[in-house]
Write a structure and sequence with these properties.
heterodimer, A: 126 residues, mainly beta, 4-stranded antiparallel β-sheet, 3-stranded antiparallel β-sheet, 10% helix, globular, B: 822 residues, alpha/beta, FAD/NAD(P)-binding domain, Arc Repressor Mutant, subunit A, 5-stranded parallel β-sheet, elongated
Chain lengths: 126, 822
């Protein structure tokens, strides 16, 4: 939902990871990736779903473990506030984590398999 | 930020006055509702908004005008604000709702904000219009003084108040011979008592400033070219003067408001929402406004007004301004002077005075009842911000009264608050040990980013944003760098940015309204955000659960991750597991199960904790439920704002000195209190004799066995700032230990603010309050103890009773993309 621009839709390989109901309201789940940092999927109070690389731009904290509020999540390690839509830290903190394309269809949460395979794939630790 | 949508729908806000109060209100408004208004600002001066407080350092040559600009022109453009500088508004047509400036510029408004500030009071004496006679108010005045100092020698400053003395100092620094004429019996009589006033005078005389104290100015005399030449007093004496600075006070600038027909009584009269009483479309903030009969001339109250005004303009309408306590610091380099509150004392007050004329130190503290109500410091002001904080919090000082005069560093402190005297620190010295922030970084941020409040500094630099123990130092730096104490009064402090309600107000409302959900509280109290934030939600969840046990349903999504996953998150995203060992005792079979789990789940580190248990570090989140099951021991709650451990010594069972069975007492306490959530973590200890091997003196509740029974100490702390626990009482039986300890902890659970340790809670309410509720009132004590037992009865162990403890087990299972190998 955060990234459904036209070119993404045309080339995306949408793949289901779970149902919206599988994510706690104002919570998150982690999508495991082989040999790469997981992707966190978040659910807001009004059932919108967003996906971000599960790594805070500050010290690498797992954002999926943070408290979700409004359109943001607070990193569990040092309480940076990260916007769910763009993955960017709220001022005056600076830095962004990688957002992933995400959409909901018939109550199922879909991510782009190609992005999952290729985006932010590297060593886990900073 | 570009605002291009919905322009036709936006209301028009016109701000008259481009100074600190008006622009602060605009900034606060933009933060709350950036799209609501088209904003037009009129400023009489040809400059963007600058920090007027720093004109004195500019005059003294310590800063430049460019350095004191707060909002450059680009800021106005960025926020699409129409700025008219150098244009004075001369008319407000309240019927057509239009303002008109002196050059004919017109601007229609839906809401109007008056922030016209004040004018220097010019003595009504002959010669006041001569060339060389200036007020001291703005950049033009300051520049005129700087120019005069290059050409002329002799200056007379009329007025020995804050502004006059800063002007005198600046002119002297620029090489002029300065005489200060002051009609009152001592300097700065509105901020200082006579002793401090005399010390100040002597110190300024040593720097070369002359004084005419008690002198009445009768006339200013011209030379042949119409420039001022001398000042004549009522007694006939004359002193030469090439420059006369009128600094005899300021008057709210209300001419425009009066012409507009708004009620003015020494300022434009406003309500608690900063609306004028005459016309609710028109607001007034800052020095021009009279609130409950007071027109404030200091920046902290103006900023508080700006904030409230902004919430009202943003249509939240929940903020109220109820007046301010103010403090003063003289900005003359090398002179330390601070005063706040009722420094003069008087009927019903007592004074504690330290006077060292040789060392040039004078301190007076004014106490009323058991509260500090005023302070006047000269020569050593390091503790000024601390005293000011005590005053604003209105907390009792009865318990520290004997040491109050010697400052914060002498109040049982072995933490790193010991480095006081921010001024003496080098730029490279570390102020905030948690986040590694140096004095230089903080001062730079304050200057360059125009920071005014402790919160600003925390947000931009992280200094004092973690453990908070360097807060006092940061406040001192703010005071020294920005030129005043701008922190908001903590008693009024809002829980977080989502609301203006304080912790105390929220707790009270939850009880009175019988609210049972976070949503009900947020709706009932007008939260600004749809579902709170990471700071208020855990607090609300705790307040609800502790106020209405068995009625409120826990909301795990409003808990910090540690309490949601029932383990401590570590820096690498793994978790630690600390099982409960009652009273610090364990068995071979427990140790064997732990050892097996460490091997099976490849747990990298096993560490003995300070609370007499074992910490298994580096457990993967997916493994947590299995580790708990394999170990088969109860949750240690080492991750929670809850009862952690009861530390014990071996006691009379083994120890040759032991007088009581401290281990059994510890186990009984731990079994009675475990699963107890609290505002913050709670640690207990039981020692079997006064040798105190279990360190009972630094625990939230510390029990010490003596031959005839047990001593109970409360509100100790071994953390950031070591605090020795205070003696509460001595009891005879273990049953009494349980009842008194439990009652004290229940009182703390009911009255403490979220994240407030017992030491801070007791400091806030006073030990006398605790004694009254827990010791003097036997029935009340039993009721507290009963309520605690009711709360804890049947509470689940979250490591085993997942459903009852509302542990969302999905969090331990990773998701997989369809088709990807799991």
């Amino acid at each position: 939902m955060s990234q459904d621009t036209t070119d993404v839709i045309e080339t995306a390989e949408w793949t289901a990871v779970c149902c919206v109901a599988d994510i706690p309201v104002l919570g998150a789940r982690r999508v495991a990736r082989d040999g790469a940092v997981p992707v966190a999927v978040f659910r807001t109070a009004d059932d919108r779903v967003f996906a971000l690389l599960d790594r805070c731009p500050h010290k690498g904290g797992p954002l999926s473990q943070g408290i979700v509020f409004g359109d943001s999540v607070a990193c569990p390690l040092h309480n940076w506030t990260i916007g769910l839509a763009d993955g960017c830290a709220r001022a005056p903190d600076e830095g962004c984590t990688t957002p992933f394309a995400c959409k909901v269809e018939d109550g199922r949460v879909l991510l782009d398999a190609q992005e999952l395979r290729t985006r932010a794939v590297g060593p886990q630790a900073d | 930020m570009k605002r291009d949508d919905g322009a036709a729908l936006r209301q028009r806000l016109v701000v008259v006055g481009n100074g600190m109060a008006g622009i602060r209100a605009v900034e606060e408004l933009l933060a709350l509702a950036p799209q609501l208004y088209d904003i037009t600002v009129f400023g009489a001066e040809p400059h963007p908004n600058y920090n007027r407080i720093l004109l004195s350092p500019v005059l003294a040559g310590e800063q430049t005008i460019d350095e004191i600009v707060l909002n450059p022109l680009s800021w106005y453009a960025e926020h699409c604000i129409t700025l008219h500088t150098g244009r004075r508004v001369v008319e407000v047509d309240r019927v057509r709702r239009v303002v008109v400036a002196d050059d004919g510029t017109q601007a229609p408004y839906d809401r109007l904000l008056l922030a016209t500030g004040s004018d220097p009071f010019i003595l009504p004496v002959p010669g006041r219009d001569l060339a060389g006679v200036v007020g001291y108010r703005d950049i033009a005045d300051t520049q005129a003084m700087i120019d005069a100092a290059q050409e002329y020698r002799k200056a007379v400053v009329i007025g020995g108040g804050l502004l006059g003395l800063e002007a005198a100092n600046g002119l002297m620094r620029r090489g002029m011979e300065v005489t200060v004429v002051h009609i009152m019996p001592w300097l700065m009589e509105r901020q200082l008592d006579e002793t401090a006033g005399r010390l100040l005078q002597r110190s300024l005389e040593q720097r070369g400033i002359r004084f005419e104290i008690g002198a009445h100015t009768e006339a200013l005399l011209p030379d042949r070219d119409g420039r001022v030449m001398a000042v004549r007093f009522k007694d006939g004496r004359e002193i030469p003067a090439d420059l006369v600075v009128m600094a005899a006070g300021i008057r709210p600038s209300t001419a425009l408001a009066e012409r507009t027909g708004l009620l003015c009584q020494r300022g434009v009269v406003v309500t608690d929402t900063l609306q004028t009483v005459t016309d609710p479309r028109i607001y007034a903030v800052g020095e021009c406004a009279a609130h409950r009969g007071v027109a404030y001339g200091l920046v902290a109250p103006l900023f508080e007004q700006a904030k409230v005004c902004a919430t009202h303009l943003a249509q939240f309408g929940i903020g109220r301004y109820t007046g301010s306590t103010t403090s003063t610091k003289l900005k003359v380099t090398g002179i330390d002077l601070f005063s706040a509150g009722n420094f003069a004392g008087g009927a019903g007050t007592e004074e504690i005075v330290l006077n060292d004329p040789w060392g040039g130190v004078y301190k007076k503290l004014v106490i009323q009842g058991d509260r500090l109500v005023g302070a006047c410091l000269y020569g050593d002001t390091a503790d000024g911000s601390w005293y000011f904080k005590l005053m604003r919090e209105g907390r009792t000082v009865a318990d520290i009264r004997d040491r109050l005069m010697f400052g914060q560093n002498n109040i049982g402190d072995t933490g790193h608050e010991g480095h006081s005297r921010a001024a003496a620190m080098a730029d490279s010295d570390e102020v905030c040990g948690c986040n590694g922030v140096t004095k230089g970084t903080i001062c730079k941020a304050i200057k360059e980013k125009g920071l005014f409040t402790l919160d600003d500094v925390r947000r931009h630099t992280k200094a004092s944003a973690s453990c908070g123990s360097c807060t006092g130092l940061v406040e001192q730096l703010l005071m020294a760098t920005a030129g005043g104490d701008y922190s908001r009064p903590p008693t009024m402090k809002a829980m977080c940015g989502c609301t203006d309600a304080s912790h105390a107000e929220v707790r009270q409302a939850i009880r009175e309204q019988h609210w049972l959900t976070i949503d009900a509280v947020q709706r009932g109290m007008g939260w600004r955000t749809p579902n709170g934030c990471a700071s208020c939600r855990p607090a609300l969840n705790y307040y609800l659960l502790s106020t209405w046990p068995k009625e409120v349903v826990d909301d795990p999504q409003s808990r910090y991750i540690n309490e949601r996953s029932h383990a401590n998150i570590q820096k690498d995203g793994t978790y630690s597991v600390i099982p409960r060992m009652w009273g610090g005792e364990t068995t071979a079979s427990e140790l064997r199960r732990i050892a097996d789990a460490v091997d099976k789940y490849r747990i990298p580190t096993v560490k003995v904790t300070g609370g007499q248990r074992l910490d298994l570090l580096g457990v993967k989140k997916e493994d947590l439920p299995a580790v708990w099951k394999d170990i088969g021991m109860p949750s240690g709650h080492a991750y929670a704002k809850a009862l952690r451990t009861v530390k014990t010594c071996v006691g009379s069972q083994w120890c040759r000195f032991g007088t009581q069975d401290s281990t059994q007492m510890g186990k009984d306490l731990e079994r009675a209190l475990w699963r107890m959530y609290a505002p913050h973590k709670v640690k207990l200890a039981v020692s079997g004799c006064p040798r105190n091997c279990a360190e009972s003196g630094i625990k939230d509740v510390g029990v010490i066995g003596v031959d005839s029974g047990w001593e109970i100490h409360v509100a100790g702390n071994g953390g950031i700032k070591t605090e020795v626990a205070q003696f509460l009482c001595k009891v005879k039986t273990p049953e009494e230990v349980l009842e008194v300890s439990g009652a004290f902890l229940q009182l703390y659970r009911e009255e403490g603010w979220y994240l407030e340790r017992t030491v801070h809670y007791v400091a806030r309410v006073g030990l006398d309050h605790v004694k009254k509720r827990v010791l003097d009132d036997a029935e009340g004590r039993r009721a507290l103890w009963d309520r605690l037992q009711f709360s804890l009865d049947g509470e689940p162990d979250p490591w085993f009773e997942f459903e009852k403890a509302r542990v969302d087990m999905r969090q331990f299972e990773p998701l997989h993309a369809e088709g990807a190998a799991p």
